[in-house]
Write a structure and sequence with these properties.
This protein has 366 residues and is mainly α. Helix content is 71%, strand content 0%.
Length: 366
């Protein structure tokens, strides 16, 4: 590890630990948000940076999607480079994130601490997906209301997000939540959905290639090029499937304990969130092709973190029952960080170190 990498990692660790201890500090929350913004907006090199830069450059010639037009306006009319445009977009997103978290959630510092552990590094690397994810997360707030108006708004936001990143179309799967809600034996419907996903897998690449915003090139990249790089596809599949299932089981455990012990009945939005977690399992068969499909259900983690934080006492206090939930979630988030970024895939030097050592904003101060 480089010295700079260790130093900035230590700052991040300090902010994470502080947020776990002091879960509701306004000053700490502000410091966490600023540090997140610096790492994300100031990053000048990561494993996906070349692809993002190529998309920006190509958009100056031809435009097909909303994101292309944003890049075109930023580059051709405002004279921005890609990283400058990304920094401004991130500023808008983080301002909205900070307002929503501080105003509408409990223990926001704890939420950001879990986010720092996982999947913040992916947010930095997958810059275009981060922008699309922000729109999707806002749309989930409407879907959790459980009414037709909320469903319509969710659909509109998802379609807009798909104009930023085509993978956002995957969130349309969650429109089947009302059907799952009406069934007493939810496992049956889940088994049917997962079975259907498995059956259509051989035909899925051809179907996706017909969508203009995806096309044959992207389909070939995800379903052939990346898949061929996986040395043991079945082992890779079971590891990522297990990783996903454990997140859902963890939420299920906390969810049922909350329903059993809360003095008032759990809210409708909490029931919907649980069912969305269950529906996310339909993406598991795609992990055989490439684990990057995990990015779609991964965004539910932030909503899960918000729910867990709401179950915890405010401030320093932890009661025995809440402390157990805290240990489970925090422990698994930390484990996810080390397994994903140290033990699997490209590793720390390719994924984490560039985030900490290639940053134009940090260079202004260090």
């Amino acid at each position: 590890m480089e010295v700079g990498s260790i130093f900035f990692l230590a700052i991040t660790l300090l902010l994470v630990l502080s947020g776990i201890v002091e879960k509701n500090s306004k000053l700490l929350f502000l410091l966490q948000v600023i540090w997140m913004y610096i790492l994300l907006a100031g990053n000048t090199f990561s494993i996906d940076i070349t692809v993002n830069q190529d998309i920006f450059d190509w958009a100056q010639i031809e435009q097909f999607t909303l994101y292309d037009y944003i890049c075109y306006i930023a580059g051709s009319y405002l004279g921005m480079k890609y990283l400058t445009m990304n920094a401004w977009l991130c500023l808008c997103i983080f301002t909205l994130l900070a307002i929503l978290l501080w105003k509408y959630t409990t223990n926001p510092c704890f939420i950001l601490s879990l986010l720092f552990c996982y999947p913040f590094a992916d947010m930095v690397i997958q810059k275009r997906w981060f922008i699309a994810s922000a729109l999707v997360l806002v749309s989930f707030l409407f879907l959790l209301k459980g009414n037709k108006k909320g469903t319509i708004i969710f659909t509109v936001f998802v379609l807009i997000a798909a104009e930023i990143h085509a993978a956002a179309l995957g969130y349309l799967v969650f429109l089947s939540q009302p059907l799952l809600h009406r069934l007493r034996h939810k496992r049956v419907l889940l088994a049917v959905f997962i079975g259907l996903t498995t059956v259509i897998m051989p035909y899925l690449p051809a179907l996706l290639a017909q969508i203009p915003s995806i096309g044959e090139v992207k389909v070939a990249f995800y379903f052939e090029v990346l898949h061929e790089k996986i040395k043991y596809p079945l082992l890779n599949f079971f590891l990522w499937a297990g990783f996903h299932v454990l997140w859902v089981l963890l939420f299920r455990f906390v969810y049922f304990r909350a329903k059993k012990n809360m003095r008032q009945p759990t809210s409708k939005s909490l029931d919907i969130l649980y069912e969305l977690n269950l529906l996310s399992l339909v993406f598991i068969p795609f992990y055989y092709w490439e684990p990057t499909f995990w990015r779609i259900p991964r965004n539910l983690l932030l909503l899960d973190y918000v729910f867990l934080a709401k179950m915890l006492p405010v401030g320093y206090v932890y009661n025995q029952r809440a402390f157990r939930d805290y240990v489970l979630y925090t422990g698994y988030a930390v484990l996810a960080f080390f397994v994903i970024y140290f033990g699997a895939g490209a590793g720390y030097e390719a994924l984490i170190q560039p985030i900490l050592t290639n940053n134009v904003l940090l260079e202004l101060f260090f």
